[in-house]
Amino acid sequence: PAFQEDHTTVMDRQSERVQPPKMYRVVLLNDDFTPMEFVVMVIQEYFHHDQERATRIMLQVHLEGKGVCGVYTKDVALTKVQQVVDRARESGHPLQCTMEEA
Ligand code: TYC
To answer: ipTM of this model?
Structure first.
């Protein structure tokens, strides 16, 4: 669409309108060493799921290789990934956490 202003046509460009932010899935990846209880604790602590839901997500990762813990804006997703990886390394676990565009 376009509108007239002082004899000048100004295009109403989509890119000049407010856009919803891109969203990112924060995912955990399986490994053979990180204890299941540690993964459940991390999911509860950083993604605010209750123990039952955290256990389901952990088991999905364990059985299928990866699982989604939550969907966030880019800055929040990056912070979660950093917090989870830092917490795992502090405890000596190789747990991997990453993000992907939703
Ligand atoms: N596979 C791990 C085990 O058998 C458990 C595990 C689950 C590890 C989820 C990582 O993201 C993970 N101890």
So the answer is: 0.98
Gyration radius (Cα) of the chain, Å: 20
Best mutation site among 62, 85, 89, 93 for ligand 1, i.e. most ligand atoms within 8 A of its Cβ? 62
User: Tens-of-pLDDT digits for all 102 residues of the chain?
Assistant: 444 445 555 556 777 899 999 999 999 999 999 999 999 999 999 999 999 999 999 999 999 999 999 999 999 999 999 999 999 999 999 999 999 999
> Quick count: other Cβ atoms within 10 Å of Cβ 1?
5
DSSP 33: S
Separation of 4 CA from ligand 1 center, angstroms?
61
Q: Is 97 in the pocket of ligand 1 (CB under 6 A)?
A: no
How far, in Å, CA of 48 to CA of 15, rounded?
A: 34
